[in-house]
Design a protein that fits this description.
Blueprint (H helix, E strand, L loop, with lengths): L1 H14 L1 H29 L11 E9 L5 E4 L6 H8 L3 E16 L2 E10 L3 H4 L4 E4 L9 E5 H8 L8 E5 L5 E9 L12 E3 L4 H8 L13 E6 L5 H5 L2 H9 L7 E7 L3 H9 L3 E4 L2 E4 L3 H28 L5 H9 L4 H38 L9 H26 L4 H6 L9 H34 L9 E4 L1 H5 L13 H8 L5 E7 L9 E5 L8 E8 L3 H5 L3 E4 L6 H6 L19 E5 H7 L8 E4 L5 E7 L14 E5 L6 E6 L4 H15 L8 E2 H7 L2 H35 L1 H9 L7
Parallel strand pairs: 4-9, 6-8, 17-22, 19-21
Antiparallel strand pairs: 1-2, 1-10, 1-11, 3-4, 3-7, 3-10, 5-8, 6-9, 7-8, 12-13, 14-23, 14-24, 15-23, 16-17, 16-20, 18-21, 19-22, 20-21
């Protein structure tokens, strides 16, 4: 029977070549889009699911509350929280800590910037980091390190890396490490990515950070804690025990100000932004934004709409051509065919069309996928696995049944008497539904076009939005940051910043220079400030430590007060923290200068802030000397928040240089010369600020590119279906057109 269905289907496929081509191409493109979007959704949902027992893995999120009720969340918490959870809570099966650091790593003449992960040895029991060489017990050896296969190739080529020594230059983790194992490269989409893994913690770091509780609620380290819970553990009940832990180890006064949340590991990538307002995750190239579950929903909805448009094409063309097969249906019924048999035949034909469309869709995806990845910045791959085959077969069957069930029902209803009498009008059956489907199809296409325009307008807004500061022809240099980890300890360049600044300014094309601890476009670190007034003793605000030229360099508008004094940094440096036994000294005003943005002033409820006592909590209060117009120090993902600027040269910062647009090569050559003079052991590197800012919107750019591709394909499929309907209607009215022409009608009529 199936052979008969197949023969009839192929015969009709060849008999009506144009309509068959439209059906197969339209449905094939639709299925191809569904596969592409399915790969994207699968890729997003699969992040962090490579680890064993993912359903029981959790990342600990710290919640910190100030006295006035402000809340902040962070994935970097006290190192002591992990061991405490494993020791005191029977529901916790295992806990592990990780800390990621970018570091310069050297072997002989090869020096590269890589990501170093300091971790507890049991991290290999919790996470899936497949080993290629070595044994995981070697991680317990002092100053041993596991490296990824890519790092092994970068440093050692085809040589055996085991036993080789790598020199790491970076604060707490600096030293010589012996390679004891090689790990498989980590997935590109993972919240834990590194090049090197070690469990060797220095005694100082062990006591001061790794095993320490935070002394106050507002201080946060850079340690991430993960736990694996025992089976059938209620996370909600476990969370109720956290306040008692905080009280026991951090003090009763901290219960109202500090708590911890259990975030499922498989939700870290897509839900961190929505649930906790977290924007950044540490990656090989520095902080990058998390994924967004809203994008997954949008992509899924787009796939459904495209599938509907393609399916509607098939239904419309099949029902429109129903009269062409009326005689076949009538004759089959006359010779004894049942309605169910006829419906099954048409369903089988629909499934065959669907299979052909699936094959075409797979060809389109395999050829188009590399270009799609380049255009959208994704890393999608089409891996034909057993699960993939089952999914594709299921997709083909579902497509065939959904698109074929109504045409099969319609065609099998034809009565032999109507067919033999010739009273069945071509395309009459299903006409109303066909019109409704066409309207729906093009309404959907218009909606997709509108969505595309909205997305592109949003991208235009992002690119053209006035951020409140000048970003054109501004170069960011990491010279001061890089020197902090230099083995040339005398090269603490940020302590002699003016010397470095003057060296760059020797070139006429470099017109200005300034420094900033926090780079524009990244989430600014926060600090606890005090206005020394009732209810304003503890306020969480964004902070940025700058120099005296910061406002003039970026042309940030002062709306009240004045700019920093030329010796503002020295004034701040002289204000040391006040010991607990000398808290009365807080009443003595210091000389530190603070500039607030408008949002900070509104938060404080001040109408005239100039001269008000203000400062970092724990220091002698300085004075508010100025107010600046709100500017976007962070990305546009985050609302404008309170920001405090103060001059402080005691910590390394990003160096900014303003250049002329002419003779760029000559300017860069001068910059490289200065870099090599101050830091000869580091590769010269620089970036334009506007490029760095644009990178913060990579997800939005990828989304807009992907949407434009899929909307274009959806419109093409819709137009393809319209072409088929127009061709059918034209063919249907050939006799009418011929008669009209015989009677003298012109072509324009």
């Amino acid at each position: 029977m199936f052979k008969n269905y197949l023969v009839i289907a192929i015969r009709n496929l060849l008999k009506y070549k144009m309509y068959s081509a439209i059906n197969v191409i339209g449905l094939g493109i639709g299925i191809g889009c569904v596969i592409l979007i399915g790969l994207f959704v699968q890729n997003e949902l699969a992040v962090n699911t490579q680890h064993p027992h993912t359903d029981r893995l959790y990342r600990i999120i710290g919640e910190y509350r100030s006295e006035n009720g402000q809340k902040t969340y962070d994935w970097r918490i006290s190192g002591a929280v992990g061991p405490t959870l494993a020791r005191d809570f029977p529901e916790v099966e295992i806990s592990t800590r990780t800390m990621l650091r970018q570091a310069w790593v050297q072997h002989e003449e090869t020096v590269l910037n890589r990501v170093f992960c300091l971790a507890d040895p049991n991290c290999l029991d919790m996470f899936n980091f497949p080993m290629i060489q070595g044994d995981k017990s070697a991680l317990l050896q002092h100053n041993s390190v596991f490296i990824t296969e890519s790092i092994a190739r970068d440093y050692f080529g085809d040589q055996d890396p085991i036993g080789k020594v790598l020199t790491v230059e970076s604060g707490f983790i600096g030293g010589d490490y012996t390679v004891a194992g090689v790990l498989k490269d980590l997935p590109k989409r993972s919240s834990i990515r590194f090049d090197m893994l070690s469990a060797s913690v220095t005694p100082y770091f062990l006591s001061e950070y790794w095993n320490a509780y935070l002394p106050t609620a507002h201080w946060r380290g850079s340690i991430t804690v993960h736990v694996r819970l025992k089976e059938n553990t209620s996370v909600e009940k476990l969370a109720l025990k956290i306040p008692a832990m905080v009280e026991q180890y951090m003090g009763p006064e901290m219960v109202a100000r500090t708590t911890y949340h259990f975030q499922p590991m498989d939700e870290v990538h897509l839900y961190s932004r929505r649930d906790y307002g977290l924007q950044d995750v540490f990656d090989l190239e520095g902080p990058v934004t998390y994924g967004n579950i809203a994008h997954v929903y949008a992509a899924s909805a787009t796939a459904i709409l495209i599938f509907l448009i393609a399916g509607i094409n098939f239904i419309n063309l099949t029902t429109a051509r129903s009269a062409n097969r009326a005689r076949e249906v009538g004759l089959r019924k006359v010779v004894g065919a049942h309605r169910g048999q006829l419906a099954l035949q048409f369903l089988a034909e629909s499934v065959i069309f669907s299979v052909l469309s699936l094959i075409l869709g797979l060809v389109v995806v395999s050829d188009f996928l590399p270009h799609f990845n380049d255009y959208t910045g994704n890393f999608l791959t089409l891996d034909i696995t057993s699960n993939m085959v089952l999914a594709l077969v299921g997709l083909s069957l579902i497509t065939g049944l959904l698109t074929g069930i109504y045409p099969a029902f319609l065609l099998s209803r034809f009565r032999p008497v109507e067919v033999l009498k010739g009273t069945l009008a071509a395309g009459a059956r299903g006409g109303l539904l066909r019109k409704v489907l066409v309207v729906f199809q093009f309404s959907t296409s218009i909606a997709l076009i509108v969505i595309t325009l909205v997305v592109f307008n949003q991208m235009s807004y992002i690119q053209n939005k006035d951020l409140g500061f000048d970003k054109e022809y501004v170069i960011e240099s990491g010279l001061l940051w890089e020197s902090r980890n230099s083995r040339l300890r005398e090269d603490r360049l940020w302590e002699r910043y003016n010397v470095v600044k003057d060296a760059f300014l020797q070139h006429p094309n470099i017109t200005a220079a300034t420094i900033s601890r926090s780079s524009h476009g990244r989430t600014a670190p926060q600090a606890t400030f005090s206005a020394y007034e009732p209810g304003k003793e503890e306020l969480r605000m964004g902070r940025n430590e700058v120099d005296e030229d910061f406002l003039s360099f970026f042309n940030i508008e002062l709306v009240a007060g004045r700019d920093f004094s030329k010796d503002a940094a020295k004034r701040y440096d002289s204000e040391s923290y006040v010991p607990r036994d000398q808290l009365d000294q807080l009443k003595v005003h210091g000389q530190a200068e603070y500039i607030l943005n408008e949002t900070a002033v509104k938060m404080l409820g001040w109408t005239d802030p100039i001269g008000k006592p203000f400062g970092v909590k724990g220091r002698r209060p300085g004075r508010v000397i100025g107010v600046v117009k709100d500017f976007h120090s962070r990305t546009l993902h985050e609302p404008l928040g309170p920001m405090v600027l103060y001059a402080n040269n005691a910590v390394p910062k990003t160096l900014y240089l303003k250049i002329n647009s002419q003779n760029l090569n000559e300017t860069v050559a001068h910059m490289e010369k200065v870099w090599k003079h101050f830091l000869p052991i580091r590769p010269f590197a620089y970036a334009f600020m506007d490029d760095n800012l644009n990178q913060r919107y990579t997800q939005e750019r990828q989304l807009s590119h992907a949407i434009s591709v899929f909307v274009a394909l959806a419109i093409f499929v819709a137009c393809l279906g319209l072409l088929g309907l127009v061709s059918f209607l034209t063919e249907q009215r050939k006799k009418e057109v011929g008669i009209r022409k015989v009677l003298g009608a012109s072509a324009s009529l």
